[in-house]
Amino acid sequence: MPTPEQLASRQMLQDFLEKAKPLRKLAKVIKSEWFGRPDAELKGWIERGRAIAEIKDSMGYRLILSQTDKEIQWAQGRLEICDKEQVMEFQMYLRCLRFFQDFILTTERNADIAGSVLEGRSTEIGRESEAFVRNARVEGN
């Protein structure tokens, strides 16, 4: 059985918590003001950051980058041994590959591009989703 002092202390704590409820709402506003951005914009930044991570983690992204690197190395090797007439063609091919590679790498630097790339997906692909099950491969013995 609580003592009268304990009951009084509990009542004071309860009164304090009731008075502090409006301060919780104020904390959200202050947080946004400190960052100078509204909560919706901050949430957008977080979502676009996640989009970058999702794109970089995809097999297609890694495949495109590795294949582009291989093509650049191949073209550089061919440029060293090609005829005078082919020099311009290989130089242009290398420029195109580097332009393409730079374009792909902008997804790492620009969250808006990453967000727009993933915007068209219907849902995230997770292990529980129907898309994952449909695209899963089981390797047999």
Descriptive tags:
141 residues; 6 helices
Helix content estimate: over 70%
**Could you report the average pLDDT, rounded to the nearest whole number?**
75
Note the beta-strand portion. Answer: under 5%
Order of helices and strands, N to C? Answer: HHHHHH
The shape is rod-shaped
Quote the distance from N terminus to C terminus: 69 Å
Q: Which class best fits the helix and strand makeup? A: mainly alpha
In DSSP terms, counting alpha (H) and pi (I) runs of 4 or more, how many helices? 6
What gyration radius follows from the Cα positions, in whole Å?
A: 28 Å
> How many structural domains does the protein architecture include?
1
Main sheet? none
How many β-strand runs?
0
The stretches of 5 or more residues where confidence is low (pLDDT under 50) are 125-136
